[in-house]
Amino acid sequence: MAANSSAGGKMSVIDLKAQFGKRFKMGKDPAAGDSRRCEAQYQNILCKYGEIYVHGDEDLAVMVTSKRIAKKLRVMTDLCVTQVCKDVEVFKFPVTSFESVAKIIRARKKRQVTSQSMKNLGAKTAYKSRIDGTRR
User: Fold this and answer.
1) DSSP codes joined into one string, the chain
2) Residue 11: inside a domain, yes or no?
3) What pLDDT score does 11 carry?
4) What is the pTM of this model?
């Protein structure tokens, strides 16, 4: 997933927006500041019970805000507990386990609009989709 870039000696990290941004709602780490453009290491995926973010070059981490959900994640074999606080637990995991972790902590999905629903929307309102190439 992540590759070393020899130019400048900088390590590249997993780009969450490029890999998962079409399906899941993306957020930004408050440490990123006020800039509109968010670098890959400051991106996170918003979830009902926490958030998923980049942890190192090849791994992801999940910050869980629910004790009940944290207990479910502790059972998984490929997750490693990295931090336990009073109300938050952090787990490190490989990218290959993303789907199962996202399902447990309920990663917030983007609404998907199919071409058929866009055509239906165009028929109900004055909006005409450009999928069929016609305009009103």
Assistant:
1) ---B--GGGPBP---HHHHHTTTB-EEE-GGGTT-SS--GGGEEEEETTEEEEEETTTEEEEEE--HHHHHHHHT-TT-EEEEE-SS-EEEEEEGGGHHHHHHHTTBPBPPP--HHHHHHHHHHSS---SSSS---
2) yes
3) 60
4) 0.73
